[in-house]
Amino acid sequence: IYNEDLVRQSYRSLIRSGLFESVEIEATDLKEKPGEITLNIKVEEKPRFSISAIVGYGSWEQLRGGLAVENINVFGTGHRVRLEGRGSLKGEHAGAEYLNPFFFNEYVSQDAMAYFERREQRSYTSQDIGGETGFGFRITEKLRSRAFYKLRESELLEVDEVLPTALTQDVLLSSMNLVTSFDTR
Questions:
Q1: Of the candidates 31, 32, 39, the residue with the CA atom closest to the CA atom of residue 7
Q2: Residues 81-108, buried b or exposed e (16+ Cβ, 10 A)?
Q3: CA 56 to CA 73: how far, in whole Å?
Q4: Of 87, 144, 151, 178, whose Cβ has the fewest other Cβ atoms within 10 Å?
């Protein structure tokens, strides 16, 4: 039985997937079968790959730039992978992200990311290696939540002798996080 609410729900689900530039759903009556309709669904896929670059200048870092490559439909599964690299005269960053936007159903997503970063500050140079993994939950159209585990190893490489020893120890930080957002847009 035709249900306009279910058609709208399917439309929103296709748009939410992030895979399509446009989605059109059109109902047409079947002339040979009165009382029955056909749903014609027309989608236009987004480009699978995107490349972005940034270039800038800052008073401390001076010349800086970056490059990111993203695949929004890995092996035709709807999974996403993003690789990113940034650098300046004071440091560098490399990162990778993975997202499964439909983890068993469209209301749950799963993601993971890892990164490396080295940065020179005025009195020390820091190096961080870390990552996180977690699950996102779409509770309602406006209410979303995300639970994730985060792990980061932070060490100081070149330390100015004026800094107290208590502030220059290498650390391993581990945390469980729960974030909830309510978006009325």
A1: 39
A2: ebebebbbebbebebebebbbbbeeeee
A3: 30
A4: 178
Phi, psi for 104 (deg, rounded to 5):
70, -30
Q: In the numeric block, which tokens belong to residue 179?
A: 């974030």
- Nearest 10 degrees: CA dihedral of 122, 126, 130, 135? -20
Count of beta carbons in the 10 Å neighbourhood of residue 173 = 11
Two structure tokens written together for 75: 């092996």
52 pLDDT tier (thresholds 50, 70, 90): very high
Average pLDDT over residues 153-182: 86
- What digits encode the pLDDT tens for the residues 77-114? 999 999 999 999 999 999 999 999 999 988 999 999 99
The long-range contacts involving 34-42, CB below 8 angstroms and separated by at least 24 positions, are 37/2, 39/7, 41/14
Task: Specify the residue for token string 């699978």.
Answer: 48
Q: Which two tokens stand for residue 108?
A: 């749950």
Among 79, 105, 97, CA closest to 133: 97
Overall average pLDDT of the 16-34 stretch: 87
- The Cα–Cα gap between 103 and 98 comes to 12
- How does residue 35 score in pLDDT terms, banded at 50, 70 and 90? confident
- Give percent of the chain above pLDDT 90: 69
